[in-house]
Amino acid sequence: MNEFSTRDNQLPGKGVFLLSALICILLAGVGFFRPPDISAEIVDRVVAFINNEAITQSEFRDYLRDVKKVTPDITETEAIETLINKKLILMQARKLRIKGASDDEVIRKYISIKIRAFVKVTEDDTRTFYEQNLKRFRGVSFQQIKDEIERLLIERRVNRALKKYIEELRRKAYIRVNLRGL
After folding, report:
1. Please, are residues 76 and 182 in contact by the beta-carbon 8 Å criterion?
2. Closest by alpha carbon to 43, among 53, 55, 57?
3. How far is Cα 49 from Cα 29, in angstroms, rounded to an integer?
4. 92 with 114: CB under 8 angstroms?
5. Cα separation values, 65 from 19, 49, 89, 95, 177, Å
6. Which end of the chain is more exposed for a tag (fewer CB within 10 A), N or C?
7. Residue range 21-38: average pLDDT?
8. Nearest to residue 119, comparing CAs of 89, 85, 151?
């Protein structure tokens, strides 16, 4: 056996060379498989959390713009509170799988099922209101105005019941608002 032969007839430095080559290939490969540089960029910040849902700044701005068309004097605080109330009702409507063409339609359907269906106005209620407000009706008979009074009383009672219901939803919900920096 000569000095350059091994059991496998390989040169003595060949193993070291192969190991070095393998390490070089692995190190070079790390560069190819490295994730791209990631830089954080805030796309849209969260202005409120309701339970596990977020309201983004852009969503709030869109809502505020639309609401100001109808109620120009509304403040940002009033607008976010109203949007939170809508979101709370929508969450409940989703639990009942209520569908609609828009969020507002879903809310109307939900209120109709959950609140309006339980509001009753009797003829005595209507007559009492008529008698207490005779000056407003300026000679219009009870029979002529009865249906309109009934609708008015129903709306008032629905609004009262809805307000209580929303207060209850808010008490049970996790709500955090951050309007600073808008």
Report:
1. yes
2. 57
3. 44
4. yes
5. 67, 20, 21, 29, 19
6. N
7. 56
8. 151
- Residue 23 domain flag: no
How many Å apart are CA 108 and CA 146, to the nearest integer? 25
Residue 99: CATH number of its domain = 1.10.4030.10
Residue pLDDT, tens place only, 122-157: 999 999 999 999 999 888 999 999 999 999 999 999
137 contacts: CB under 8 Å, gap ≥ 6:
130, 145
Domain assignment of residue 69, yes or no:
yes
d(CA 82, CA 48): 12
The 3-class SS string of 102-121 reads CHHHHHHHHHHHHCHHHCCC
CA–CA distance, 125 with 132 (Å, rounded to integer): 11
Residue predicted with more confidence, 143 or 180: 143
The secondary structure element, H or E, covering residue 153 is: helix 142-172
Angle between helices 76-95 and 103-114 (to 10 degrees): 70
Q: Residue 145: give the domain boundaries.
A: 46-177
